[in-house]
Amino acid sequence: MKKAVVLLGGFSEEREVSLVSGAQIEQELEKMNYKVVSIDPQAYQSYQLMMDDLLEIRPEIIFNALHGAEGEDGRLQALFALNKLAFTGSGFRACALAMDKIISSKLARTLDIPVPQQTVIENYMGKNREITCQLNFPLVIKPYDSGSSCGISILSDNSGFEQALAAAFEFSDKVICEKFIPGRELTVSILGDSILPVVEVKPKAGWYDYTNKYTGGKTVYEVPAKISAAEEKIIQDYALKIFRLMGCEVYGRVDFRYDGEKFYFLEVNTLPGMTELSLTPMAAQAAGFSFGKLLQEIIRLSLKKKSVL
User: Fold this and answer.
1) pTM to 2 decimal places
2) Which end of the chain has less Cβ packing within 10 Å, N or C?
3) What does the pLDDT look like over 220-254, one tens digit per residue?
4) How far apart are alpha carbons 5 and 109 in whole angstroms?
5) Active site annotation includes 269
6) Active-site entry in 74, 184, 255, 302
């Protein structure tokens, strides 16, 4: 029987989402006759102790279901590669680039992909007035290396500006102050060389925050999104170009805002969620991939990728 390890939980603010993703992956892999061991980094006093267990198990594949922090920023990917352990998703360089929203935005600009106007704040004390003068409201205040909308605020005016900065600084040592793009939220998932159908995210109230992402019935999803063939080509081309420039492999998701004229790049997610409300499984299903078939394809592509060794 083939052995697989599912990494789940971890230390980030996205721990609870990771536990749900990991449990669903474990259940599906068991249906495929894998002997599955679930490992939570939080159960270990050090990564070396966790690596000792992984090296003893020597799984055919480590299915990484961690979200945020160490699971998505390249640190564990580097450890796995150095120890010649096969793992799902992109290698450490691509993960590190994608996790850093400042660098990823700069890379998108080199491809002439529109990016919302941004200012980076490292120490906001005393800079409040300067930032509000540089960018007009509405603004998005967000950590530069976090996920699941944690620490993000959308402000229509200057009230609450200090509180929004403080909330973002709870998750990162750098904060992005970004021009809010009104319009539609669209996302493009990539699986190997295939671009999956575009998904539009339509929260019933407010914006696509943590609650609307992970609470059933709070958001409507249109798959495929109702956009023209020409619009679809533009957004899919943008997604594939930035995915490849970063060196991403196997699968991932690229998020955009669309104001009716331009698609604005937001971020690349190298470890999309695998819950029943997650966007990449929705897109895959629209392309004819059941959840089990999606996992099989991720494993197949991961075992072939260059960054395994």
Assistant:
1) 0.89
2) N
3) 899 999 999 999 999 999 999 999 999 999 999 99
4) 38
5) yes
6) 255
